[in-house]
Design a protein that fits this description.
3-stranded antiparallel beta sheet; globular; Nucleoside Triphosphate Pyrophosphohydrolase; alpha+beta
Length: 114
């Protein structure tokens, strides 16, 4: 499941649902909140896939945690800073905002997480 970003960086391009932790949240709480806010979908169990750092012109240096999550419920719809949200076959990804997101999908497939 990918979202079309409505904001920079990468406005208009596709990405995995993502966002920032809020004060007092656990990583898992932030993950569930961001997926729900951007896609309307509730996710179930999650497994950490990768940890990396990334630097961009909007946020500077950030720590990125990539998770494979299980769909639980809900009808996909864009929300928050997403202008679209859709399911894509993993071998037919559209133009992605971040190369790291494409690599996260490949890593999940290699580990048979999705």
């Amino acid at each position: 499941m990918l979202i079309r970003r409505g904001v920079e960086p990468g406005a208009g391009l596709w990405a995995l649902p993502s966002g920032f932790m809020e004060r007092g949240e656990t990583v898992e709480q932030a993950l569930h909140r961001e997926v729900d806010e951007e896609t309307g979908v509730a996710c179930g169990s999650c497994k950490l896939l990768a940890v990396e750092t990334h630097t961009d012109f909007v946020f500077g240096h950030v720590l990125v945690l990539a998770y494979a999550v299980e769909y639980q419920s809900g009808e996909i719809r864009p929300g928050d800073d997403a202008v679209d949200a859709q399911w894509f076959p993993a071998n037919e990804l559209p133009n992605m905002a971040f190369q790291s997101h494409r690599e996260f999908v490949r890593l999940a497939l290699r580990n048979q997480e999705c």
